[in-house]
Inverse folding.
């Protein structure tokens, strides 16, 4: 590690990637240099009992292992959370400590999704144990600690910009909207029995998007959600985005774009004005004989929506120009598939 | 790990030239592996046994390898099997929607879980990828080590268990705890550039690391789970640095030396170090280094094809392979000095250094030589033998970076010093004495041309007094040199009146006269007939 550089947290641009190779790597995004690696080891104890068969099908995460399922940087940029099997580990961004500083456990099975309240008051997770949890990070008596239970393993959780509604997508194809203030919840099932893999709401709370294992992307218009107003979801469109599993969807910070990642080796970028395809970012080989190079697992836009970073199972993360689809940087170093990333880019002015 | 196969592979590669040092290192390597299984006493006996049987091992190589091939190998050291499984199914394993889960039968449980669900229920990352097939259930010591490390790390790490909140919320409580924020208040950030965009504009060229293919040998993330090796590498000296600082590299243990060089170059480049390296990995080689960074020249560079785990050295130096003179001035220069015992690489700061400095550095390197009292040396260009280099000239003027260190004035008035240079290409005729000898002129009796086979091959004989005996030494060289030596020595002998020489000739006369008298007697006898 170059002694001249500061810690990851001191850099206004933070890019982190993780996957199956027991490490979380931090990169200097504009140069491609890996500046720091932290260990995400497997715990030596073997899993307690083999899980039973899972209905409906969907992303099956095997027991044990040190893979990271999700990464999220805390809003104050002090730490990064890595969600794995039965735990969430927090790593310090303001030092070079290669080991986690906090370990959250007491949950069974894989935790698939993690996020934070914007003030850092609490952390939310969703997992294969069919529960979404709110972990109180501040108060001693765990005021905010809560559980929301559904009937199928949870693949994704997303927090509404109003910080009080949690959107949960599960393997049975249901999308739950859990109102934290009133404790009410409602369900949407755009495509029954097809696992919902990712949900996201744009920063303006104008749209909500969800992608599933059929490769479809569903978009709703959002209204209300402030003060006493209940959030309303009005179906807007269905995009047949991919012909294989769609794994991730993300809106750009300026809400003009929606990206979808898929097992078909592409990440497609759609205009939210009319949901037409703007760019296709592909890692497909030109050689027709070559089978899949890897799936596109995750993506994140830069602060000004000009660039996007993708994580794929060919062990690489890449930086692309959104408009031209040109690869700008490659982040190589992972020994195995990269399945998640976290990107925090600052905007000038 | 199949020990017998591992040991066989190591032993079969012992080269007799480096037997003594490498052999011991191999023993240590083997001991590291064996440590987990056998006790120390056994290791000691094994060490002694291996040292003693080194010669026999080389001879027995063929039979041992054959034994190894016949023996049952249970582990897949090549990693091919798991590569097929892993790379092909990594995504499906995570995402398998169709197959039934069935019994998990994970590799730690020896249950009868070998049913159809088995393949897909295997966790993608547990299987050993780069190690030698070390499996958790068979290697207790490694597991214990990991547990210990885990415990250590856990001590520093705060553990938070999930706790359910027993009391239920009232409506007011919920409202106050989970307020709905007015998200529309957020100021739009459209039109403004992000810091990443600015930075990308400032360095538009893709800083593609030409050594990316070697990044897979990086073992940093694998410490404790896979066999890795930590090495401190001394790099070519940067102009602004006065002191060498090593770069720490962690490599997967089964990488080859060539791969390690690639990894070093990759890490160097990805850390943004200057000056930039040559794109070609083959331009570099690794030498063993001392802890202070000095390159150890007793050993040649590490063989590119050898696996790195074979070597016990943890301090190495990356050296630019020396191919042609006058290399790029930016890189630090290494001048190669060939001498009787091998060669040295002298580091110089620039081409402006004088030959005198280089000679002094070279002499310093020659272990055991003392200034002033020892033999005199001179430098010659490798390409121009017998032409001494002007010591006041700069390195630049020489247009070569390879020199020979030659003993000057092997023949002086006081002594005859001979430092025979072994011709490596010659056959193993060891009648030429290896050690340099020094004969006091007082004891020198004669020097004669013994044989002149061809212009390139002549032999001269030196006779000297040693403990009241006359000893003869034969030396071989090219005719010109031999004649020169004979001439010089005789000149010295004639100019000095040495008693030893006088005695020698006197004795020789006596011998001759005895012989003649003998024959005379014979003739006399025959004459009398």
């Amino acid at each position: 590690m170059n002694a001249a550089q500061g810690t990851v947290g001191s850099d206004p641009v933070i890019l982190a990637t993780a996957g199956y190779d027991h490490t979380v790597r931090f990169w200097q995004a504009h140069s491609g240099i890996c500046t720091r690696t932290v260990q995400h080891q497997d715990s030596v104890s073997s899993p307690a009992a083999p899980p039973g068969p899972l209905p409906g099908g969907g992303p099956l995460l095997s027991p044990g292992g040190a893979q990271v399922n999700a990464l999220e940087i805390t809003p104050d940029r002090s730490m990064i959370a890595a969600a794995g099997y039965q735990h969430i580990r927090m790593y310090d961004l303001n030092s070079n400590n290669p080991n986690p500083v906090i370990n959250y456990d007491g949950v069974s099975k894989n935790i698939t999704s993690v996020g934070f309240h914007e003030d850092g008051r609490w952390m939310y997770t969703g997992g294969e144990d069919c529960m979404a949890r709110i972990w109180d990070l501040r108060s001693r008596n765990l005021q905010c600690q809560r559980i929301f239970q559904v009937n199928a393993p949870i693949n994704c959780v997303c927090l509404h910009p109003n910080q009080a509604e949690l959107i949960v997508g599960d393997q049975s194809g249901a999308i739950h909207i859990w109102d934290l203030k009133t404790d009410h919840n409602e369900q949407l099932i755009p495509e029954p029995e097809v696992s919902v893999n990712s949900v996201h709401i744009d920063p303006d709370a104008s749209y909500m998007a969800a992608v599933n294992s059929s490769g479809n992307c569903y978009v709703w218009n959002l209204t209300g959600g402030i003060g006493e107003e209940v959030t309303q979801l009005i179906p807007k469109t269905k995009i047949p985005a991919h012909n294989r599993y769609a794994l991730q969807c993300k809106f750009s910070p300026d809400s003009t774009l929606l990206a979808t990642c898929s097992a078909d080796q592409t990440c497609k970028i759609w205009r939210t004005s009319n949901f037409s395809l703007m760019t296709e970012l592909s890692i497909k080989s030109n050689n027709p004989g070559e089978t899949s190079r890897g799936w596109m697992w995750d993506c994140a836009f830069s602060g000004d929506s000009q660039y996007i970073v993708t994580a794929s199972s060919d062990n690489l993360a890449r930086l692309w120009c959104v408009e031209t689809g040109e690869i700008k940087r490659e982040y190589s170093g992972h020994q195995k598939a990269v399945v998640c990333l976290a990107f925090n880019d600052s905007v000038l002015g | 790990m199949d020990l017998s196969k591992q040991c066989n592979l190591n032993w079969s590669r012992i080269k007799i030239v480096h037997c003594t040092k490498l052999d011991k290192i191999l023993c240590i390597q083997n001991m590291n592996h064996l440590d987990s299984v056998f006790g120390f006493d056994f290791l000691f006996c094994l060490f002694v046994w291996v040292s003693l049987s080194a010669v026999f091992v080389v001879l027995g190589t063929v039979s041992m390898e054959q034994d190894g091939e016949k023996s049952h190998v249970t582990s897949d050291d090549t990693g091919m099997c798991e590569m097929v499984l892993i790379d092909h199914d990594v995504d499906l394993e995570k995402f398998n929607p169709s197959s039934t889960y069935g019994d998990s039968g994970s590799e730690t449980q020896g249950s009868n879980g070998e049913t159809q669900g088995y393949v897909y229920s295997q966790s993608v990352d547990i299987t050993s990828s780069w190690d030698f097939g070390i499996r958790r259930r068979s290697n207790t010591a490694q597991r214990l080590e990991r547990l210990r490390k885990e415990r250590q790390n856990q001590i520093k790490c705060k553990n938070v268990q999930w706790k359910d909140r027993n009391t239920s919320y009232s409506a007011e409580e919920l409202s106050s705890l989970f307020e709905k924020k007015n998200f529309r208040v957020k100021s739009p950030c459209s039109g403004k550039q992000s810091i990443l965009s600015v930075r990308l504009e400032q360095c538009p060229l893709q800083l593609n690391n030409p050594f990316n293919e070697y990044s897979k040998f990086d073992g940093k993330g694998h410490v404790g789970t896979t066999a890795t090796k930590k090495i401190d590498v001394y790099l070519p000296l940067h102009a602004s640095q006065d002191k060498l600082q090593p770069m720490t590299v962690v490599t997967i243990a089964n990488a080859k030396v060539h791969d390690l060089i690639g990894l070093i170059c990759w890490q160097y480049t990805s850390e943004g170090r200057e000056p930039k390296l040559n794109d070609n990995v083959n331009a570099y080689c690794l030498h063993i280094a001392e802890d202070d960074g000095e390159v150890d020249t007793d050993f040649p560079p590490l063989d590119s094809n050898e696996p790195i785990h074979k070597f016990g050295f943890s301090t190495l130096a990356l050296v630019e392979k020396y191919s042609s003179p006058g290399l790029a001035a930016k890189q630090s220069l290494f001048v190669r000095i060939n001498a009787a015992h091998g060669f040295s690489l002298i580091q110089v700061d620039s081409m402006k250094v004088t030959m005198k400095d280089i000679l002094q550095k070279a002499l310093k390197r020659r272990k055991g030589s003392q200034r002033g009292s020892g033999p005199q040396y001179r430098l010659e260009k490798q390409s121009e033998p017998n032409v001494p280099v002007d010591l006041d000239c700069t390195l630049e003027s020489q247009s070569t970076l390879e020199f020979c260190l030659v003993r000057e004035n092997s023949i002086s008035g006081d002594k005859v010093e001979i430092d025979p240079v072994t011709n490596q290409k010659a056959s193993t005729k060891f009648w030429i004495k290896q050690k340099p000898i020094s004969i006091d002129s007082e004891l020198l009796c004669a020097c004669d041309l013994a044989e002149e086979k061809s212009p390139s091959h002549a032999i001269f004989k030196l006779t000297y007094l040693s403990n009241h005996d006359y000893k003869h030494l034969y030396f071989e060289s090219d005719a010109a040199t031999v004649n020169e030596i004979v001439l010089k020595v005789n000149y010295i002998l004639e100019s000095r009146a040495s008693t030893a020489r006088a005695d020698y000739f006197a004795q020789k006369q006596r011998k001759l006269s005895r012989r003649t008298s003998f024959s005379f007697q014979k003739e006399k006898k025959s004459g009398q007939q």
User: Anything to note?
Assistant: Chain A touches chain B through 101 residues (CB under 8 Å). The first strand of chain A starts at residue 13 and ends at 19. DSSP finds no helices and 27 strands in chain A. The radius of gyration of chain A is 19 Å.
